[in-house]
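Mods, move this if it's the wrong board.
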Amino acid sequence: MPKVYGYIRVSTEEQVASGMGLPAQERRARAYYDYLVTLPEYSSFEWGGILEESGVSAYTVPLLQRPAGRELNAKLEAGDHVVFLRLDRAFRSVKDFLNTYELWELRSVNVHFLDLGVDMSTANGRLTLHILASVAQWE
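Not the wrong board. Structure tokens:
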């Protein structure tokens, strides 16, 4: 049975104070899962849980080299989905985004970015994310 995992991250105390702390991110990821399973195409999906990082920079450490990123990658199976609240919670480099996405696409893993409302299974979704990954790196 396919699973939905949430990945959450903070790298600074400022992010915690802004309302993007780990508990807030976890609530939003779980609420999104609760919504997804009301849709017929996701009704059989199970909650895989939350993987969280604290104090790790996405700018200097690629997702799959971070402890929770490695753990997430090891758990993923074909048909699973990963929920990120924001693109910059996962990736701050175009290269990291492209490498991870291509790896997961080959493994039939889909990705959801809640801040963007982008479906990575469509050509428009992939184009949008490539552009926005460039912007996240620029920031």
